[in-house]
Amino acid sequence: MSEKRNSVISVNCHNKIMSEKIEVVLKNCTQHGEGPHWDDTTQCLYYVDYFVDVAHRYNPATGQDSRLNLGDSVVSVIIPRQKGGFVVSQKTDLGLVDSWESGKVTSIAKVEADANMLNDGKVDASGRLWIGSEFCGKDIPDLNKWPKHQGSLYSLDSDGSVTKHISNISIGNGMDWNEDNSIMYFVDSIPRQVWAFDFDITAGAISNKRIVTDFSRFSDIPDLAVPDGMAIDTEGKLWVAAYEGGKVLRIDPTTGNVIRTVKFPCEKITSLCFGGKDFTDLYVTSSSLTLTPTELSKTPLDGSLFKVTGLGVRGYKANMFSG
Predict the structure, then answer these.
(1) 228 belongs to the catalytic site
(2) Structure pTM?
(3) CA distance 45 to 41
(4) Which of 51, 190, 294, 305 is 20–30 Å from 229 (CA)?
């Protein structure tokens, strides 16, 4: 199934100093958009509708938004493989999709307990997939009512082996690495924290956990707002989605301070990635999940896909899964 959106809606959310521009690329295209991944090979953006079990492929050159139904599961990531096809998550399992056209999924590992679900994931520079998990709160709208410390952080190697690195996570979310791959950054949403670990890319190991920042220290962020998806730019600064905060924050990981804020015309900002030919476009997903019609009428762009240009920074090329 595909949908073509020929027009791009511009939103008047310009930063007076940096002249950034926020565009609504696809209006209300998801209930709960997540997992954006820019594929440099095809110049397309892949992302998912988390609880609807659908993966999307958006082609900016044509405006085409193709959809792939991945069955009765909770899909949080779809990332291209070096060998062709994709690695995907399906609630508790990780699987391989042989091609976009066939959509055939082959499960390769059951990772989580049935009461849980996999969440945000990303591939490191060696081609290893990292993915966090959480309690499956699909039918519980309030995140704070989800049982805490049920999740973990895993990695999937090219040979199909799965390693659990840390446990007692509440909502395992965004992640990324610094330029020399010596540090891995990771979000746990419920304590509202961004963490850093020493990273051994050869061994695929993390150690020396420390807190980079905590959303509770930011007075201009609502109390309900939590860190969600995350990306890093070539200057080593973190871009973090503020779910229920309507913002993306640029954070200096050496101080934990917010050094820039991009405000969106909706509240439920979920995740983000850099893309475009020179990786200067920031694609941002959002959610309309749990909103009543009255609430959605106040923020009618929740669930849309956004693109931010004119930021003056760029990101890195995303990695493909080596398995």
Answers:
(1) yes
(2) 0.93
(3) 11
(4) 294
Tally helices (H) and strands (E) across the chain: 1, 26
Phi and psi dihedrals of 26, rounded to 5?
-135, 115
Which two three-digit tokens encode residue 239?
């871009």
Q: How far apart are CA 49 and CA 54, in angstroms?
A: 5
Phi and psi based region of residue 154 (left: phi greater than 0; alpha: psi -120 to 50; beta: remaining): beta
At residue 238's C-alpha, the angle toward residues 296 and 162, to 5°, is 90
Q: What is the full DSSP assignment across 229-253?
A: EEEEBTTS-EEEEEETTTEEEEEET
One-letter amino acid at 53 equals D
- Burial of residue 54 (number of CB atoms within 10 Å: 0-12, 13-18, 19+): buried
Q: Copy the structure tokens of residue 112.
A: 């989580």
Question: What tokens does 77 get?
Answer: 């990531």
In the three-class reduction of DSSP (H, G, I as helix; E, B as strand; rest coil), residue 1 is classed as coil
Question: What does the block give as tokens for 87?
Answer: 């690695």
User: pLDDT digits over 166-202, tens only?
Assistant: 999 999 999 999 999 999 999 999 999 999 999 999 9
CA atoms within 13 A on the CB side of 147: 10
Name the active-site residue from 228, 233, 281, 302.
228
Burial call 236-246: b when 16+ CB within 10 Å, e when fewer: ebbbbbbbbbb
The residue to which tokens 């973090």 are assigned? 240
Q: CA 242, CA 189: separation in Å to the nearest integer?
A: 10
Tens of pLDDT, residues 122-162 = 999 999 999 999 988 777 767 777 788 999 999 999 999 99
CB atoms within 10 A of CB 168: 10
Burial of 98 (0-12, 13-18, 19+ CB in 10 A): middle
